[in-house]
C-alpha cells in the first residue's frame, strides 16, 4: 500500500510548502486537483503550474492532479505538459484522468461538452493521442473529434514505457472498466451505491481475470491523524480488498491549518 495526500486548498506558495512537508512526513504522493470554477471553493489554481511548484520543492514523492478531465483539454497540449513535468520531477508524475464533475463551471458555463457519451468519446481519443505522442514516432490519428497529422514529439517522458495513467472507471460498466484496464490504475466509481471492501474484492478479482501486469487500485478517504491505530483500522480493509494506494482526501476542509497538521501527522500506514 502506498499513501498519497490530496491538497484541497491553499495559495500556490502554501501548496508547494505542503508538498515538501508531505515528503518529509513520509507520504508517497502529494496531489492537487483540476478545477476551473467551483463556487464552493474559495481559490483554485492551474494544476500544471501548481505541480511544477510542487516538483521544485520535493525530490521523492509522486505528483498528480485528481483528476484531469481530458474532454476540456487539448490532448497534444496535455502530452507536452505531462512530458515537461515528468522531466522537471525526474520521473515522478502520475496522470489521473476521467470525465470530470459537472459542478465545475469549466464545463457548462463556457460551452464545453457536458453530455456523458461525448465526454467519454473525447476521453478515449485523448488517451490514444497522448500515448501516441509519447512514443517518439511520427504519429497520425483520425478520430471523430480529433485529428493529428504526422506529429513527432521529443523528448519522450522519463518514465517508460509511459507516464502512469490512472483512469476513473464506473463499476460495473464494461466499457468504462475496459478503458481503465488499458492503462495503469483505476479510480473506482461504484455506480450501484457506496463502495464497500467486499465490493472491491469482487472488482479486484474482475481485474485479475483481465490483467496480468501490475495495476493500481486507488481509494480515497479520511483518517484521524491523532489516532494512528484507528487510522490503520480504516485503511486495512481496503488494502486487504485490493487497494494499492490510499489517498487522504479532505474535500470539505476549509481550514489550511487542519490540512497542514494532518499532512505532518503522516500516512495511516498499516501496522
UniProtKB/TrEMBL annotation:
Pfam families: Bac_luciferase (PF00296). Residues 11-210 form the Luciferase-like domain. SUPFAM superfamilies: Bacterial luciferase-like. Keywords: Flavoprotein, FMN, Monooxygenase, Oxidoreductase. The keyword Oxidoreductase applies. One of its GO terms (molecular function) is alkanesulfonate monooxygenase activity. The keyword Transcription regulation does not apply. GO terms for biological process: alkanesulfonate catabolic process. InterPro entries: Luciferase-like_dom, Luciferase-like_sf, SsuD_RutA_monooxygenase. This is Luciferase-like protein. It comes from Ktedonospora formicarum. The lineage of its organism: Bacteria, Bacillati, Chloroflexota, Ktedonobacteria, Ktedonobacterales.
Amino acid at each position: 500500500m502506498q499513501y498519497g495526500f490530496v491538497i484541497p486548498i491553499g495559495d500556490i506558495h502554501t501548496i508547494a510548502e505542503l508538498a515538501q512537508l508531505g515528503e518529509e512526513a513520509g507520504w508517497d504522493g502529494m496531489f492537487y486537483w483540476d478545477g476551473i470554477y467551483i463556487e464552493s471553493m474559495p481559490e483554485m489554481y492551474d494544476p500544471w503550474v501548481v505541480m511544477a511548484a510542487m516538483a521544485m520543492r520535493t525530490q521523492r514523492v509522486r505528483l498528480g492532479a485528481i483528476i484531469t478531465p481530458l474532454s476540456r483539454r487539448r490532448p497534444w497540449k496535455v502530452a507536452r505538459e505531462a512530458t515537461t513535468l515528468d522531466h522537471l520531477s525526474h520521473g515522478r508524475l502520475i496522470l489521473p484522468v476521467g470525465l470530470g464533475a459537472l459542478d465545475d463551471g469549466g464545463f457548462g458555463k463556457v460551452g464545453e461538452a457536458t453530455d456523458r457519451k461525448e465526454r467519454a468519446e473525447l476521453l478515449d481519443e485523448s488517451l490514444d493521442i497522448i500515448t501516441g505522442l509519447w512514443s517518439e514516432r511520427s504519429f497520425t490519428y483520425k478520430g471523430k473529434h480529433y485529428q493529428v497529422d504526422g506529429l513527432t514529439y521529443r523528448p519522450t517522458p522519463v518514465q517508460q514505457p509511459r507516464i502512469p495513467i490512472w483512469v476513473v472507471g464506473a463499476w460495473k460498466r464494461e466499457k468504462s472498466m475496459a478503458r481503465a484496464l488499458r492503462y495503469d490504475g483505476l479510480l473506482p466509481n461504484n455506480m450501484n451505491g457506496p463502495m464497500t471492501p467486499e465490493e472491491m474484492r469482487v472488482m479486484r478479482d474482475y481485474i485479475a481475470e483481465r490483467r496480468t501486469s501490475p495495476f493500481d487500485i486507488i481509494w480515497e478517504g479520511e483518517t484521524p491523524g491523532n489516532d494512528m491505530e484507528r487510522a490503520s483500522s480504516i485503511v486495512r480493509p481496503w488494502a486487504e480488498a485490493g487497494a494499492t494506494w490510499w489517498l487522504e482526501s479532505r474535500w470539505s476542509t476549509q481550514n489550511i491549518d487542519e490540512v497542514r497538521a494532518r499532512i505532518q501527522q503522516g500516512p495511516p500506514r498499516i501496522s
